[in-house]
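Closing statement on the iron/sulfur cluster sub-project.
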Amino acid sequence: MKKTHNRREFIRSCSRYSLGIALAGVTGYALKDATALQWVWQVDPFKCTYCGRCATHCVLNPSAVKCVHAYALCGYCDLCGGYLKPGHIDRDTAAENQLCPTAAIERKFIEEPYYEYRINEDLCIGCAKCVEGCSAFGNGSLHLQIRHNLCVNCNECAIARVCPSDAIKRVPAYDPYLVKGSFSDDTNT
Amino acid sequence: MNKRWIHIILLLAVGLIAVIVIADYLSTRPGKRPPNPFAFDVSDYESVEESLISHRETRQIRITDTKAVHIASNENNIFLLTAGYLQTLTPRGEEINSISLGQAATSLFAFPDNSVIIAFENYLEYYSAEGNLLHRSDSAPDNALFTAVSTMENRIYVADAGNNQVVVYDLALKYLDTFKGESGVSTLHGFILPSRHFDMAVNADNELWIVNPGLHYIQNYAADGRFRRQWGKPSFTPEGFSGCCNPSYITFLHDGRFVTSEKGLVRIKIYKESGILESVVASPEAFKNGLKAPAIATLENDIVVALDFDRSMIRIFEPK
Ligand code: SF4
Ligand code: SF4
Ligand code: SF4
């Protein structure tokens, strides 16, 4: 059986590296606040239970928590559980069909039947609605992360105090993200 | 201390307790959850009309101290794959046999004589009913991830989710062939696998049916891998398959009707041979707070056996 690399795999690997590079870029900026502290706050995506408090309890408005996309885990599905409302009328980009309350997810046709989903972080409020939809119906590639270019690294993270799942924890400032795919557990939904 | 002071102290204590209770009630500490304004709500699809539900749950068999992986059945027994073990059980859950497997297996197929083919990540093993290893296949190369195994006309068909293909072996587990599901007419007929859910089953008429989960189709292929026909549609209502990786599992009742299991909106349903929804075995309400699709098997008399990963138990559903 011969190993083949199709276009979808190519897209996936490019996307994987672009997510890594993007997060690494902002890490440098983040470290200007964090190096002295050694530790920063981060969401453990395998513990998050999508309660919505990341959107409502951050000291910043909008929240420093954003949805990020682990492209390597994504199925590039047309019928995306993180993008489309349950009971959507049509499978398209019309506002009434979108799950995200702020239309922060952009859907782009790649090739039949694959679609790519990108998060517009300026619009994302970190509400985790898409994360729950993606985890329930898809592969859980959408997940929350505290973005360190925004987070002011409070002494005690206001979200950590109310997180019902103990999902917000301190991580070393030199490795400030817990992006799915770069660490794992055995969750298999 | 006179009585008056005792009353004042008691009143203060009661007041203090009331303040603590009210403050606690109004607080948003983790144990006290105000409703989530951003909740992902599928409640409209969780309840199913009672008249559509054909089965009721009659028995649960708890799985303790181990992680369940998959389930299969033949006419008499249930075969439970757990981390490192294969257990043969009676329908009442009594253990008949147990085989230690060394490696973590992924799927299995049980013959009528209780011999079993077990799929591991990239190879197969064939065990006799007594638990003796009869054959082992070579390891499949590259990214192989075997997720389902079935047999038809002395051939063994294996779903390889790592390479979006079906691999064919003979009964001695010698490699014969591979097919990717293309019909030659449209690339849409290739297997579209958003996740590691890639199941297949053979019905009593020796028809090989393979799930194409990214397209929400169940597709029929000839023994040589030629695409023949398909049915299925995406929908949150019971008629179709929800989400992007469904149905996650399929199997057959003995007369050829399909049994399907879905993740996300977790539900088990029966479809006629034509692909028309016949009934719901278990609605999402039976799997409240669960997300994982139960692996499924069937026993005689239309009994459906579900391996509930979220609750770590085998659940038996019998016709009402
Ligand atoms: S508060 Fe905790 S459980 Fe709620 S969305 Fe944030 S990380 Fe997830
Ligand atoms: S649904 Fe919520 S978390 Fe997801 S992209 Fe939209 S605002 Fe962000
Ligand atoms: S540390 Fe402060 S700014 Fe950062 S996510 Fe928590 S509450 Fe928001």
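The pocket of iron/sulfur cluster (ligand 2) is lined by residues A 67, 100, 102, 104-105, 119, 124-130 (CB under 6 Å). With this model delivered, the sub-project is considered complete and its resources will be redirected to Aim 3.
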